[in-house]
Amino acid sequence: MTDPAGLADIVALDSDIARVERDFYHVFAAESASVVESLVGRARETGNPALLARSICLQCRALIARGQHAVAAVLAREGLAAFASLTDSAAWANLAARAELLRTGGCALLKLGRSGEALPLLQDAVTTAELAVARPLRTTDDERRSQHVLIRSLSNIGSALLAVREIDTAIAMYERIPAVPEPGADDPGLIDDLLLARWNWIDALHQRVRRSRAAGDRDRAEADLVTALRLLEGVSERVTAGPEVSSPITGYGRQGYYASLGRHLLLAERPDEAFEMFERQIEAISAEPDSGMYDWVLGIAHAGMAQAALAQDAPQEALRHTALALARFERHDEVEERAPVLLVRAMALRSLGEFEDAYNELEGYHALRARVEAEAAQQYAGHVTAKLGLERARAETESHRRIAATLETLGRIGQEITANLDAEAVVRILSRYVGTLLAARSFSIWLLDDAGRELRSAFGVEDGQAVSAAPLPLDHAQSWIARAVRERQDIVAALPPDQAPATLIPGTPFMPFAIFAPLIVGDRALGALSIQTDRPDAFGDNERSILRTLCTYGAIALDNAAAYRELRRTVSALQGTQNELSMRTAEFERLSLTDQLTGVPNRRHFMERATIEIAEAQRNASALAVAMLDIDHFKDVNDRYGHAAGDVALAQIALIAKEGLRSGDFLARVGGEEFALLLPGAGPTEALAIAERMRAAIERMTIRFDGFELRVTASFGVANFKSGDQTIDDAFSRADSALYRSKQTGRNRVTGDP
Ligand code: GH3
Ligand code: MG
Ligand code: MG
Q1: Separation in Å, CA 746 to CA 415, 455, 712, 750, 752
Q2: Do 476 and 546 lie in a common domain?
Q3: Is the CB of 674 within 6 Å of ligand 1?
């Protein structure tokens, strides 16, 4: 018997819980999670299991919104235990809350990447919510809440199914989602949930569009795109109305609409409009920065804008948005969302010619994708394990043991197969395990060629004998294996045992019972496996599950191997390009520093070298001289013998001048018929002597060209670098003045700076 005071507590708590249940969105946004937490505390004190379960339910939702999925999953278990202790009638009365708790528990597990465990919970949530909706409920609040839960459960179970790549089943779930109510329904929570469910639905349709396009099924792709567009159009007016018309749609609901529309437009190759939609997405959510999804939403928007910018040939802009997206995702470790952003980065960098950076991003992308695929494989394995687990509960003791052993083996195989980066090893391991796990007389693996047109036999064995088969066109009308690949689903065939098909290879045994299972990664088919036998009871659901699991592991491993091969190829191609590039750069450098006619350094090189020599001379307080050389009356040479003769003379003078240099001296052609010399360590007397030797050598030289013999002379001006000089120009202009004096006083002579 409860005392009256305690009863009052319970009544008060009941109405508080009901208030938060009704207005979860507003309460959660306005009063923070501590309100919900205090409800759980109060419920624990009352010891009332129904209230405890309902308050826990609310806290789970709050935790999920804040990304604390692990805590939510544990709490959900406590809540479900509370429900289990309710008497039947009380449980019935709380049906909607029970469904909600199943859903939040499932949702938390799903977010933790444990869809294998999440799926049965979510399935139960859908069933329970459907029961609740079908029953006459106490109040309209209860009724509405049940609707909510049903919608959310359908939406979550859809996500869970997508996570294990069951796109078709997921879409079938979404198709059960009711239409968005007419304006007038003023429940933002309900409308937001409905919209969110629709966005998920549209995303699933998009996944199927990509899959259908990859499979060449244009009609299906077109039909799904039309459905997606219809869904979007169905709500656009209400969504875009904006809060000022008191639309019962929150910013969160609106952002989802714009994101979905943006993705749709990207898929339809309309990047300009897509970009605008992502901008509106940001606008819609910026009104609700407290939402637990704020960062994630912004990340998604910028990722979309990056993709749109890339499609608009604006790689810089794309890069800018990828950086913004990554910064948002960093806070939540959104691996799955990050991978495509890296791909956009790689493509943007590539189109900017930043090959090395592009390559690095590509590597990052592959690493992330490998992680995503590995997680998906684990999820899928969990899914299969859960399926097998259910069957195990129903089976006899004997098969208990057999399946337990199988599960263990499957886990090991998964690790073994996916650890391989070599396609042949993968095929070998697959064939070994098919042999031990499945009672097949015949087993073969077929892989799709690069063009995606032909299936090639990668492995085949029949009664222990290796068999080989000719390539098979993917559009082959009779072949089961080709059909399995085309349709991306298992085909279980049981032919009448006395009717061998036309496709039977003569001389081979007819095996009427077969499974053909495609090797699929993401939305791509890589090939297929087939097992065949003549025993009618050999292939049941278990065998199918085992084969499916092997296919999943095998496909991932083969895809990894292909990605690895591709990466190797890219690496070596890039290395080749890199080598060529650095060779060319070196050549270019050399050319840009050398005078083409004489082969001696040019003016630019001289200035660079001069800077170095000055610094050196200043540091060591050592001498440094510069000398200018100008050929006398060179115009006459050109005039008399032609420009070509002049060129030969220039080259020969450069050669002679070079011969007179000491090691460490530096000669450059700094003008048409002018040369300059850097003479480190040479004081005034020594510099004059070097120039004089050079002058004499030029004077002695005979230039032969086209039967002519000609001689030239040159004038020199020499100057020393002084401690007060800031740059080489000071010494240069003194050398120039000295040269001028040489010209003035008769040419063919050396003048020093006085
Ligand atoms: P000066 O003794 O006063 O130096 O007389 P100059 O004729 O050498 O002097 P000026 O500076 O008037 O003429 C330089 C000439 O050098 C003009 C141009 O035709 C010639 N020249 C400059 N660069 C080249 C070249 O690359 N090849 C040839 N063949 N001639 C060149
Ligand atoms: Mg000159
Ligand atoms: Mg001259």
Answers
A1: 92, 90, 14, 11, 15
A2: yes
A3: no
